From TrEMBL:
Keywords: Membrane, Nitrate assimilation, Transmembrane, Transmembrane helix
Domain of life per record: Bacteria
GO CC, one annotated term: membrane
Transmembrane segments: 21-46, 58-76, 88-106, 112-131, 152-174, 180-201, 243-268, 274-293, 314-331, 337-362, 369-391, 403-422
Name of the protein this chain belongs to: MFS transporter
Amino acid sequence: MELRNKANRIRLFSFNTPQMRAFHFSWFAFHLCFFGWFGIAPLMAVVREDLALTQTQIGNTIIASVLITVIVRLAIGVLCDKIGPRKAYSGLLLLGSLPVMSIGLADSFETFLLARLAIGAIGAAFVITQYHTTMMFAPNVVGTANATSAGWGNLGGGTTQILMPLIFSGLLILGVSETLGWRLAMVVPGVVLFITGIAYYRFTQDAPDGNFDELRERGELAEANGEHGAGRSFLAAAKDIRVWALFLVYAACFGVELTINNIAAIYFFDHFDLTLATAGMIAGLFGLMNLFARTLGGVFSDLFARQGGLKGRVRWLFIALLCEGIALIGFSQMHVLSYAIGIMLVFSLFVQMAEGATYGVVPFINKQAIGAVAGIVGAGGNVGAVAAAFLFRAEAISYQQGLFYLGLAVLVLASCALLVRFSPEVEAEEAQAYREALGEESGAGALSLH
């Protein structure tokens, strides 16, 4: 069944409609999840000294931080199909806040590793964010809505690189030792996550016309037939080769972003001999590009769709991935700080546009299993991050060499985008839905500031 009353325009400063409340709450919640997820990354130079961690051990904690997310993302999409994004997001935020606040209790590599493993579960917030905006926005603007909500969420990967060292420094000014400072600093994002979880449940709803349980009672939404229904949804998605092609594509873009979020600060700290605060500030620029870069990926996806339909969306995804790989290889070869920053920003632009382009395609793969498709593709990002992390845990491979090999991998995986194809019937159906969604509005990805 097709949900009714989806918004065909994003009115950024409106909070009156359920569509825009879901939009703003979803990106803000995901933004905070990044604070919890990667809040420790810009403080790793301090943690390394405190817990006497080796490069291999640091690499293992990076793997742990993204490994568990693979499993949770696969499950959370199906859970959204069953109970709705409102309950799924609220539960994830409340439960996820607990390990974020308690990571400060770690006193060894093993306990720190377990804490990062548990925290990684909140990375599944991305799938719920994309699911919720997909429920709320029409075909002409869904690419922009998905890309913007995810992009402003990913922005947390940049702001945490900047703000966590400042929080840490503020604690030092108050007389707290470095050993205690990084532990107390992590309490801040944990508390905010808990509060946001309560607010998400209170102020959002699953779909434009109500929550899933209400829609099912009115016969406006198909029943979630327990585990069997969820299983059918997942199997339908898992049998589609296009889903796994997008799985690999997302590994090549979001997987790379997660990797950079984990290593950027310590890379600039070590390679260019910078202070912790300066390294964090520069690393933060990479994530801050999410303010507009991922949105651009979605906007271009919607614009390409206007002229070329679903084929246009796929074509744009391939272009973005190709440019990302070239820019990453260039970044890996930089030895002058100013050049490294410049090419990093170009690379950041394309990696995030590729992410937006990916989820400009996802909503059209299987409308009966949106959650399962979003979950599998989203998990691909974390699989990519896990695979990439092995490059950076090996003592024999420098971070620069690891970045170069990663760039080559992106160029190879870009070809997977071309495996995503749609039947002529689906192309025609979506082209008609696109025209109908435009209605009286002008332009693809209609977005306004009022």
